[in-house]
Amino acid sequence: MKDMRMESRVDSTVNKIEARKVQVYYGATHAIKDVDVDIADRAVTAFIGPSGCGKSTFLRCLNRMNDTIAICRVEGQILLEGEDIYDRRVDPVQLRAKVGMVFQKPNPFPKSIYDNVAYGPRIHGLTRNKAELDQIVEDCLRKAALWNEVKDRLSAPGTGLSGGQQQRLCIARAIATQPEVLLMDEPCSALDPIATAQVEELIDELRHQFSVVIVTHSMQQAARVSQHTAFFHLGHLVEFGETGQIFTNPKDPRTESYITGRIG
Amino acid sequence: MSVAMLLAVIGVLALTGFVLSRQRALASAGGNSRALHSLPNYYGWNGAIWVLVPALAGLSLWLIVQPMVVESRISADLPAALVADDSARALTMADVRRVAGGLDQAVAQGAMSEAKAREMSTGAVDVRAVLANVGVALGSNVSPEVLSAAQDYRAMTAWGAAARTILILVLAVAGLFWGVSRAQQDYRARIAVERVVLGILALASSIAVFTTFGIIWSMASETYDFFTKYPIQDFFFSLTWSPNFRGNSDLGMIPLLWGTLYISAVSLLVAVPIGLFTAIYLAEYASKPVRNWVKPLIEIIAGIPTVVFGIFALVTVGPALRDWFAEPLGLGNSGSSVMTAGIVIGILNVPFISSLSDDIINAVPQSLRDGSYGLGATKSETVRQVILPAALRGIVGAVLMAASRAIGETMIVVMGAGAAAQLSLNPFDALTTMTVKIVGQLTGDTDFASPETLVAFALGMTLFVITLGLNVFALYIVWKYKEQYE
Predict the structure, then answer these.
(1) Which of A1, A165, B97, B313 is paired with B252 by a 20 to 30 Å CA distance?
(2) Is the pTM of this model over 0.80?
(3) A25 interfacial to chain B (CB closer than 8 Å)
(4) Least CB–CB distance from A100: residue in B375, B378, B390
(5) What is the largest CA-CA distance in chain A?
(6) A123, B377: Cβ pair inside 8 Å?
(7) B177 and B256: one domain?
(8) Is residue B88 part of a domain?
(9) DSSP of B151-178, one letter per residue?
(10) Rounded to a whole number, what is the distance in Å from the CA of A115 to chain B's nearest CA?
């Protein structure tokens, strides 16, 4: 499969995350079945598929967010740079600092814009003084293309921003912990087309520094922002490959049916 | 016709209005309910409302106004000597009402004829003896003025009752006709009913507001009375509280205020951390089975009567604190103490704070927790930095509620802290609070003209102002830390 990733937009072919034979159970329900996936470093990987196909569940395995759900059980192996993240010695809290996450609905904390972005650096002790923290906050807001809109009101509540601004604030907050991987769970589903375009542009910028994994319902969005695409259906990974190939020359008939709109 | 009878008649008329309006509306649409603007029952309700609202409103107005009119006319006819001032007037009118009631009783039991009750005079009959025979005991002989006033009172009341019956029946029947006449196909009965529902809801909420104003008014007038009899600066600034019903009392509220604040502060120091930590444990850490067991168990505390807590304070906590802390530390040997009452009131308040805070913490959106965990925060970091700030508003409300309860608590203070009004910093000294002294001053033989009794109202008013101030302060906190999430 590796030889399929030849497109020039791909900056790297190094795998950041390798998942093997991943199974997820919610109580008695078998939600993810035998998923093998390689997430490339410094590239955008999109997960597509109909609702309930398990793509968000799988995404949440990558930073062990499923640990917060009592009935959820994960089997198989997920390696982040060769280390099993489900190993007993791995601290999920540390892991989540390395694998950041942006959620479907913008969820800024009920704090100021500044404190929202400074949240991660503060709890992880990434800065030694106020000046460094100020610098991180400014850098992250700039990277999230929000700095110019909020630089005069950093002490205003983050919840007072518009939906698109809130989502960009959440992205700034996620990248402030200096993660290596950024997981995005349908980050644009609550946004209008203009805000969506801004966030997509931002994702394209971010892939130069991070490995980005995005779950999306919009096939156009997957085609626009990603270099690799994985198609999930009923808990199975049906097809995984370079984005251009998935959309123009799918191998599996189910993938073809989905992208042409016959199922889903 | 009696009021109960009148209500029954109104009820029957309303039912008639319901049935007739419904039928008439259906008939106007040719029996096809889909051609009506509203569902048939709305026409029925509309008909019933037109009977009920005017008749019941008229009746309640009449029942309020009639006694006022009768009393003012009777007291205007009484000789000036009997109604010299307000208290004399009240006494005389009480006599008049009692005699009139006695005459009613006598006529009802057949001890005298209606005509005799109307005509008799004190010269011919010993009214006191006659009324005593029918079970109405009077404190003194009936004077001719009071008897004739009572006879006038009966006559006017009887006339009023007749007029009331006629007026209300006219209103109800007119309402019936009007309501039924509106029941036409195009009449928007649904909207009319909706307006009445709004009116009922608004009325219900305004009753609570008016009651509050009523309470303030009654306390304010008595408080004013108190300050005309006792110097205001002595009440607020004197450091001694020693009421003396023979006069020469020292009624300084400072020792009571001190006791109230001291005991409340101790109770909050107990209740807030325990309650809040319990809530955090239950909402964020406890597994579902644990939570389902522990939460109801904690809430049982809220159902225990405070007097039972008082017993606990008196026989268990008080002696334990005295034997293990106060005496070894050389801080006195009193079983009743600030600590005893404060700790027990604090325990009483734990379920209030924990239960309310638990609900509030649960209402914080899961997305905020996810956001924090997703950034690599631990549970306690998430609780401290995201959940508690988001829930602050509600938690302040819960703490305020606990504070109000602590300030208002009486039983536990009597049994746990005693009734000694003094200024002391020692937490193992007996102290008392304003509420205890309000009870103390108002129970037993009371003379509502003496400052020793009226001081209770001034204390009540002060308490009211303190709790109002607490509320305003809480609103300010909430406003200052106002956080909004969707």
Answers:
(1) B313
(2) no
(3) no
(4) B375
(5) 57
(6) yes
(7) no
(8) yes
(9) HHHHHHHHHHHHHHHHHHHHHHHHHHHH
(10) 10
Neighbours of A203 (CB within 10 A): 23
Closest CA to B358 of B454, B284, B424, B441: B284
What ipTM goes with this model? 0.87
Number of structural domains (chain B) is 2
Find the domain containing B399 and state its range. Answer: 241-485
pLDDT by 10s per residue, chain B, length 486 = 788 999 999 999 999 999 999 999 999 888 888 888 889 999 999 999 999 999 999 999 999 999 888 888 888 888 877 777 777 777 788 888 888 888 888 888 877 778 877 777 777 777 777 778 777 777 777 788 888 888 888 888 889 989 999 999 999 999 999 999 988 888 898 999 999 999 999 999 999 999 989 989 988 988 998 999 888 888 898 888 888 777 778 888 899 999 999 999 999 999 999 999 999 999 999 988 999 999 899 888 888 999 999 999 999 999 999 999 888 888 888 888 999 999 999 999 999 899 989 989 998 999 999 999 999 899 999 999 999 988 888 888 889 888 988 998 889 998 988 888 888 888 888 889 999 999 888 887 667 778 888 889 999 999 999 988 888 888 887 777 665 543
Is residue A185 within a helix (H) or strand (E), and if so which, with residue range? strand A181-185
N- to C-terminal Cα separation, chain B: 59
CATH, residue B246:
1.10.3720.10
Whether B138 maps to a domain, the answer reads: yes
Q: Decide if B385 and A120 are in contact by the 8 Å CB cutoff.
A: no
Contacts (Cβ under 8 Å, ≥6 apart) of A135: none
Helices B451-480 and B434-442, axial angle in degrees (round to 10): 150
Determine, for residues A159 and B483 on separate chains, whether the beta-carbon distance falls below 8 Å.
yes
**Cα gap A196→A190, rounded to integer Å:** 9
Q: H-helix or E-strand containing A241? A: strand A236-242
Single-letter amino acid code for the residue at B309: F
Contact residues, chain A, for B365 at CB < 8 Å: 107
**B339, B321 in Cβ contact below 8 A?**
yes
Angle at B465 between CA B347 and CA B405, to 5 degrees: 15
**Statement to judge: residues B442 and B324 lie in one domain:** yes
* Chain B residues whose beta carbon lies within 8 Å of the beta carbon of residue A103: 367, 370-371, 374
Residues of chain B with C-beta less than 8 angstroms from the C-beta of A159: 483-485
Together in a domain, B74 and B173:
yes
Alpha-helical segments (H) within A74-218 = 92-98, 113-124, 130-143, 147-150, 163-175, 193-206
d(CA B280, CA B292): 15
Is B97 part of a structural domain of the chain?
yes
Contact B483 A157 (CB under 8 A): yes
Sign of CA dihedral B211, B214, B219, B222: negative
Q: Is A97 in Cβ contact with B371 (below 8 Å)? A: no
Q: Which residue of A has its CA nearest to B384?
A: A123
Q: Would the CB atoms of B367 and A101 count as touching at under 8 Å? A: no
Residues of B contacting chain A (CB within 8 angstroms):
287-288, 365, 367-378, 381, 385-386, 389-390, 483-485
Mutate to test the interface with A, among B287, B367, B375 (most CBs of A within 10 A): B375
Closest Cα to residue A10, out of A232, A184, A237, A241?
A: A241
Q: Write the DSSP assignment of B422-462 as a string of letters.
A: -----TTS----HHHHHHHHHSSS--TTSHHHHHHHHHHHH
Measured distance CA(A210)–CA(A218) in Å, rounded? 22
Matching residue, tokens 């850490």: B285
